[in-house]
Write a structure and sequence with these properties.
Layout (H helix, E strand, L loop, with lengths): L1 H4 L2 E2 L6 E4 L2 E9 L2 E5 L6 E3 L17 E3 L3 E2 L5 E5 L4 E11 L4 E7 L1 H4 L2 E2 L14 H9 L4 E6 L5 E22 L4 E4 L4 E3 L5 E3 L14 E4 L2 E6 L4 E4 H11 L9 E5 L12 E5 H12 L6 H16 L2 H20 L1 H17 L2 H17 L1 H35 L5 H11 L2 H8 L10 H9 L7 E17 L5 E3 L5 E3 L3 E3 L2 E3 L4 E10 L5 E4 L3 E9 L8 H4 L15
Antiparallel strand pairs: 1-9, 2-3, 3-4, 4-29, 5-6, 5-9, 7-8, 8-28, 9-27, 10-26, 10-29, 11-22, 12-13, 13-14, 13-22, 15-16, 17-18, 18-19, 20-21, 23-24, 25-27
């Protein structure tokens, strides 16, 4: 079509990667598409100096500023697109689409830094969808929150924006020492453990990457903070996101609550603040509901404490901890003021006169009901004589059940430990006492001694062929976490997806946005985006030319107009 109908001019029938011995970002034919180039004329950056807003109905040409064309060391020409800025540019190529062809222009993976569509992204709702699935769900309006490394090296919850298809490209297979594989473009940057970044092509076996470690504690997800080595609750990070964006205020004496009661779903919209007293009552109503057996609960606690007290090391640590808390309590000035306040309230209420009146009331009651003393005494003796043996037997039976639970197998224990991330959490999942785990000491030893190995590179190899690649954007932090357990930078340059309708002619105007925190070099006369063509088996009824579209036969930078 290019040779016979002039669909693309000038036309490169092969993919050009070098010009006069100088390496360029490729341009020309690529499988089912064409990598077009950005012309050295007509590149403009939006500036807020001339106007406070961009109105497509009344566009102010003064809001576009010509960016200086720079010269690189190898002779390449480029512009710098500042962080979080927008720009317009025009293609070298002129297009003339037949009436049976439609095309779509997408960003080029060389700029986008992309992943294979099957790459899974770690989300704070406990799921890890493939990035191509996220792109499809995003088109339906779904939002995604993941993990990012903030400005000061602390993990934070961020909104992952615009998961999208980029095009086709060659990939590297980065294998971690936990067996996870990551397929990405060679220039995709990984965050290193020391805070620096490096592209995939420069990673070496043994390179330490920034890790994402997660575990469950009492059913709540905790995330490892590399900056201090402590685990921090993910729902608190989601709460911080809500505070940053003014969803609600940081009010004292409030608790964070999961709306859907799923402790793993830590999306910010699922986190709200409740008054502490209301939150405690809410969960007490669930925990201590109609099926709650207080006697069984108390027996379980007593049995557990008796076992702990027999452990000399635990008891010594417990006693030291309690002593330290007691000393802090009695020595803290804040608590001293609180005690004085309570004592003052007590004395104000129980004056000598008030205590004398209370004693007089009690004396009058017992004097007027002489038989009451004997009745209460007999009832108490009779009750404890009748239920004492039965209660002891019930407690012994509860303890026997807790210590046996023959239906719990080694496989169940191992699976529960892997899911919960702690012995206490595993016991909660299996609805049993932790003493059950004593039957499987080798499983517990293996669990306590396991090491996390998902933050080092095992190998980097080329992947055969070209593949569909996807990426996303994180404006707040510029990076996100993969389910494989490492952090990577996001796609910085975004080229708006632009349709080329049947019958349209002219040079294509592209809109760019830089979501990264650093300026991006955009090279002139080199590949900038990819056009993919779709051919119909019949001509369209009404083409762009038939409609006399306002952008027909444009030869340079054309701004929005009515």
């Amino acid at each position: 079509m290019c040779r016979e109908n002039g669909m693309i001019k000038p036309f490169e029938a092969r993919l050009v990667r070098e010009v006069e011995g100088r390496r360029i970002i490729s341009a020309g034919v690529s499988s089912y598409g064409y990598d077009l180039r950005l012309a050295p004329d007509g590149f403009r950056v939006f500036s807020p100096i001339a106007s406070a807003e961009i109105d497509p109905k009344n566009f102010d040409e003064n809001s576009l500023v010509e960016a200086p064309l720079r010269i690189a060391d190898d002779g390449s020409q480029y512009w710098l697109l500042p962080p979080h800025s927008y720009a317009l540019g025009v293609t070298v190529e002129t297009f003339n689409l037949p009436r049976n062809v439609i095309a779509y222009c997408l960003g080029k993976s060389t700029y986008a830094r992309c992943f294979h569509g099957a790459t899974r992204v770690a989300l704070v709702d406990g799921s890890s969808p493939k990035i191509d699935e996220m792109a499809a769900r995003s088109e339906k309006g779904e939002l995604f929150w993941g993990y990012s490394i903030g400005e000061h090296g602390r993990i934070m919850v961020t909104l992952l924006e615009s998961p999208r298809y980029i095009g086709r490209d060659s990939l590297l297979r980065v294998t971690l020492n936990n067996g996870e594989d990551i397929l990405c473009t060679p220039d995709h940057k990984f965050l290193l453990r020391d805070g620096r970044v490096a592209p995939a092509c420069r990673l070496q076996p043994g390179t330490s990457l920034m890790p994402l470690y997660r575990k469950l504690v009492r059913g709540y997800e905790m995330v490892y903070q590399p900056i201090n080595g402590h685990f921090f609750a993910t729902h608190r990070l989601a709460d911080e996101w809500n505070l940053r964006y003014g969803i609600y205020e940081d009010v004292s004496d409030t608790h964070r609550h999961h709306l859907d009661e799923n402790r793993i779903n830590n999306q910010p919209p699922n986190i709200v603040r409740m008054k502490a007293s209301e939150h405690i009552r809410y969960h007490n109503d669930q925990t201590y509901g109609i099926d709650f057996d207080p006697e069984e609960h108390g027996a379980s606690i007593r049995a557990a404490l008796e076992r702990l007290y027999k452990d000399d090391d635990w008891y010594r640590q417990f006693a030291q901890q309690q002593k330290r808390k007691a000393n802090n309590f009695w020595g803290d000035e804040k608590y001293a003021r609180a005690r004085q306040h309570l004592i003052a309230r007590f004395h104000a209420r129980w004056t000598p006169e008030a205590r004398a009146e209370q004693r007089a009331k009690q004396e009058r009651f017992w004097n007027s009901h002489p038989e009451a003393r004997d009745v209460v005494s007999e009832r108490s003796k009779s009750y404890w004589a009748s239920v004492d043996d039965e209660r002891r037997e019930k407690q012994r039976e509860i303890a026997r059940q807790l210590n046996t639970r023959v239906e719990i197998t080694e496989g169940l224990v191992r699976a529960a430990l892997d899911e919960a991330g702690s012995i206490r959490g595993a016991a909660r999942l299996l609805n049993c006492d932790r003493s059950v785990f004593r039957r499987f000491p080798h499983v517990i030893r293996a669990f306590n001694g396991r090491s996390t190995k998902n933050h080092k590179v095992a190998s980097v190899k080329e992947e055969k062929g070209e593949h569909d690649v996807f990426c996303l954007t994180v404006p707040e932090a510029g990076n996100f976490a993969l389910d494989a357990g490492v952090f990577v930078e996001n796609c910085g340059l975004i080229v708006n997806a632009t349709p080329l309708e049947p019958g349209w002619r002219g040079r294509l105007v592209l809109e760019f946005s830089n979501s990264a925190d650093l300026p991006i070099r955009i090279y002139a006369n080199e590949g900038i985006a990819q056009v993919t063509f779709f051919e119909s088996d019949e001509d369209c009824e009404t083409s762009y030319a038939d409609r006399v579209g306002k952008y027909q036969d444009q030869v340079g930078l054309v701004t929005p107009r009515l």
